[in-house]
Amino acid sequence: STPESRRQMLVDETGAPLGDAQLLAMHLFRTLRFVFSMERNRKVFRRLFPPDLFANFIDVGHYVEDLLPYAPLEKQLRNLTPEAKTKVLEALDDIHMVKDDRQRHVREYAVQELLGRGGFGSVYQVKKRNGETLGETLYAMKELPIEAVSSFSNSGERNEVRVAEQLQREVHILSSLQHPNIIQYVDSFQHEGNLYIVMELVEGATLLDHLNSLAEKKQKFSETRIWQIFTQVCLALRYCHKTKHVVHRDLTPSNIMINEDQVVKLADFGLARQRLGTNSVMQFESVVGTVFYQCPEIIQHEIYSEKADIWSLGCILYQTAELRPPFEGNPLALASRIVEGHFAPIQGDYSDLLKQVVSRMLTPNPDARPDIDEVARIISPVLLGELDRVSHAAHKLRAEVRDEREQRQRYKHEALRNKEAVHRLFAKQKVDAAPCASSTTPSAHRCGALREPREAARESSPLIKRQGARETRSPMLSISPNRIREIHDPCSRILNQLHKILFITQLPPSTELSVERQLIEKYKRALFSHRSHYHGWNLKDELNKLLTGSREHIDMAFGVLPQSADGAGTGEAQKQRISYEELQRFIEQVLSDTGYYNLRSADADVVSAELSDSGRSTANFSRSREAMRKRSVSLSAPLADGRATDAPRSVDAMQRIARPT
């Protein structure tokens, strides 16, 4: 069908054809749905659309080109209430990072994007400039309105000064936590009635986002991946309980971040408390946390300790395996199940150890529930395996550092030798030229006599004559012609390499998992990341190493690598590093599989056909010109009155006029 006939099929509820504005909205919805199909973009859309519109937006499906399924979305958007439209516009302004002069500043931090909003405040991505030469750094900044927090205080007194002091004490606790599996806090201050907490920005997603994504794909975590996440949370929790005597009190999957290197970070210590004094047991009474992860003591309003975090961690471990919390239902049934400790058993091909750990941590009796050290003893086989993996990775990194140090030493010595060789060469030429310039002995006359033929030849050269006499002779380096090679434009080669990488990352998702494409996508993100300057990366140097096939290892950790050429693959997801040569081989393999060079060869065939047509035209013209010259000679031969010389001149004039440019 033609576009006009398909447009006539798009009608509104009255049967009238849709207008241009409605069609434009449908086209925009189709474009946004294509963008939403990329998983890393989905968090933005949850904030942009109302829940009902967002649900229908998802139901359209991935990569649907027909406009008809987007007509209900256009109608639903058109029928939104003014309040809902205002919220959509506000959400659109929050996620819009290019704000020009409208960009909001909080002290030295420029607010870029809203990352999330909760009951007490919001979290923004902010940018701080570190002087003129050090560049900019991105952080996450939490904004807590003091008035809103004081309205939720247990005492009922809205004393903003007292609440601010309490929040500052909590910030002091958070700033004392220094652990690789806990988000690092950077700064905190009060500004215009708000408390701001600045912390490191984790480029990744929450554990809840990962679980929702797996549920949508109808997949599950492998047990190895579950243990890798769980052990890192246990390390962070043990540091809090045993070293800093801090109880988190709000441990949920949404407060566990996983960055691009699969490092787990514990976040959101807004409800955390620290033990005061020398008591050996931490006890609390306030009802806090998320109800799905609250322990029976909190549900029954009893005194609880750090073992409340153990219960929450058991719920998280269960949800990581089953993709749903262990306790669900209406509030009354939910409270009853939590107090009694009744939950459905874990299904699937998981070990007895995992089921045993969940059962022990979800023990209703807090006295029988293990603490974090007892949990570590239960999972000691898993911890030993993780320790062995970390030990091997550390040994490999030390070997790589040693090799890189030796390679840099070799480069340094080689550069020093080359520098000394150049200095010796110039010094030798100056010594050789000094006697001829200053001595008046017969040897000097011989040196001058030897230079005379050389100078005469130099002066007779047309190139030297064009340059003029102002050029003075200087010491020169003699280079063998065998060492001279053609110079290619480095900018074109680098841009061509960059085009290949971007071409691969812009390809539509494939039906099968491609480890090579994942590696290239990860390298591209690291190449253009704002943290690239931390690694000392330079775009030109990185692409040049790819072009030359350097065997130097790339300074970033990759996950599972594709099967190697000798058949030795990696069976588990562990941090591994590859060389630029291997990455370049993966790039060429993906380009070949996706038909990249077939497209370029087709374009080259078109160009060569045009050139061949031009060549044939030039050859025909040359043959015609030669025939014309022969004919002019034959015509001028019988003439003896001197007019014969005019014919070739006429032919030459015709050739000059008709000569192709």
From TrEMBL:
Region (Disordered): 436-480
Alphabetical UniProt keywords: ATP-binding, Coiled coil, Kinase, Nucleotide-binding, Transferase
Keyword Coiled coil set for record: yes
Biased composition (Basic and acidic residues): 449-458
GO biological process entries: regulation of cell cycle G2/M phase transition
UniProt-listed InterPro entries: Kinase-like_dom_sf, NEK_Ser/Thr_kinase, Prot_kinase_dom, Protein_kinase_ATP_BS, Tyr_kinase_AS
Coiled-coil region list: 387-414
Binding site for ATP: 142
Stretches assigned to the Protein kinase domain: 109-383
UniProt superkingdom: Eukaryota
Gene Ontology terms for molecular function: ATP binding; protein serine/threonine kinase activity
Family of the protein in this entry: Belongs to the protein kinase superfamily. NEK Ser/Thr protein kinase family. NIMA subfamily.
Protein's recorded name: Protein kinase domain-containing protein
Species per Swiss-Prot/TrEMBL record: Chrysotila carterae (Marine alga)
